[in-house]
Design goal:
alpha/beta; Alpha-Beta Plaits; 2 domains; four-stranded antiparallel β-sheet; binds ribulose-5-phosphate
Length: 262
């Protein structure tokens, strides 16, 4: 199966597989959302089924919950888990300080709550997610539907005094209707092009009534596992200040990934 995968999918797969080495017996694991995180859920599922790994998973979206259950991972709520040993999730962008933009899949709220309630957050990504400055990827913010157009106008006005290059925002759509998050909210995508001060922007955005949360993850990520299409992985650990490289073997993954949909 991996022989048929595109280089980008191979990169996501090896990053996910390497990140699963952070998971040990008995751990409570935050399960991210998105195509890279879906590889990780599948890998963990295989470890549960084949190696007898005993973990409980806290998913960051309804679709990750469905996938986790389908591969045999015991799913519990965050309130049942209370605190997590590790969360593994994808990202839309990461910078040299491992600050992130997340929310491309619309799950930023649960993702941020779960990652913040974890001893460690490990991001899995391919090298296309690496940026010098955050902001080329539109920054998602979750807003409540009540008065969303007023919130949008307030956000755009607020951006005038922020260190960003663009100031427009768009309501995320699912075909012709607003995209609805798992919490029943809307997503506004902010087209900022470059964010000069992500920490300040995150604080200011969260002061605006109507904004539930924004997709900037500041000082939350501990390490990024970067996968490459040829099987190489690089692990950058921000706390240890280390960068390690290795190669992951592609396994026969016909059964594991034949019905990948995310
Ligand atoms: C979902 C996310 C995802 O982790 C992010 O969009 C990356 O997704 P992918 O691995 O599919 O590129 O934040 O809300």
């Amino acid at each position: 199966m991996t022989g048929e995968l595109s280089p980008i999918d191979k990169a996501k797969f090896v990053a996910a597989k390497r990140a699963c080495e952070y998971v040990e017996d008995g751990m409570r694991v935050g399960l991210g959302t998105g195509s890279t995180a879906a590889w990780m859920v599948r890998c963990l599922g295989e470890m549960v089924r084949q190696d007898g790994l005993k973990i409980t998973g806290v998913p960051t979206s309804s679709r990750t919950a469905d996938l986790a259950r389908s591969v045999g991972i015991k799913v519990i709520s965050l309130d049942e888990a209370k605190w997590l040993d590790v969360t593994i999730d994808g990202a839309d962008e990461y910078d040299a300080d491992l600050n992130l933009i997340k929310g491309g899949g619309g799950a930023l709220l649960q993702e941020k709550i779960v990652a913040t309630a974890s001893d460690q957050m490990i991001v899995i990504a391919d090298i296309t997610k690496q940026v010098e400055a955050l902001g080329a990827f539109p920054l998602p913010i979750e807003v409540i539907p009540f008065g969303w157009q007023t919130t949008k106008a307030l956000v755009e006005e607020t951006l005038i005094s922020m260190d960003v290059l663009g100031r427009t925002s768009t309501l995320r759509l699912n075909q012709d209707t607003p995209f609805i998050t798992d919490e029943g909210n809307y997503i506004l995508d902010l087209h900022l092009h470059r964010i000069g001060n992500p920490r300040q922007l995150s604080l200011v955005l969260n002061q605006i009534p109507g904004i539930v949360e924004n997709g900037l993850f500041i000082d939350i990520c501990d390490a990024v596992v970067i996968g490459y299409g040829d099987g190489r992985v690089e692990v950058r650990d921000i706390n240890a200040g280390t960068v390690e490289s290795e190669r992951i073997d592609f396994l026969d993954t016909d059964n594991l990934f034949s019905d990948m949909t995310d």
